[in-house]
Design goal:
Blueprint lengths: L8 H4 L2 H28 L7 H19 L4 H22 L1 E2 L6 E2 L1 H18 L3 H28 L2 H13 L1
Antiparallel strand pairs: 1-2
Length: 171
Amino acid sequence: MLDFLGINVEHYIDWGVILRHLLLIGFALLLTLPVAVNREANSSGGGVRTFPLVAVATCSYTLLSLEVLSGDGEAIGKFMAGIVTGIGFIGGGAILKMKDDSRVSGLANAASIWNTGAIGMSVAWQRFEIAIIIAVINFLILRVGYDAKKMVKENGGKECEDDYESKSESD
């Protein structure tokens, strides 16, 4: 491909590594799609672009650190700490405080952004069981939590108070 420049591309590019990294990054992206679709449908914050991008970037940076810093555990640890800090910064941008009242929104988005970063990092380390568990738990919390939050808002908390009072009276 670059033979006209006198560069032996095969010497610099390991297609096996490229394929492995592509598969890992693709898997990280795939695991975040349920959370991304949920957030797209149920929030005004991040969605089908933000969450997969966080996972892809985290996975990519982790793969980069593993390749470049291989064998230097302390340097890899520092690199990972920087990634986690950066994800926290992005998540912090998802949290909004409303001026008209003391309500805060975007906490589920921020936590989910952090989780998708953990998914990407887990996939890069090829700890697929951790990535899958995080993805499933995150999705279930968002799905069940959304319904529970809606039920509490519709009942105004009254049902919860009634249950508490009836349990107190029976004791």
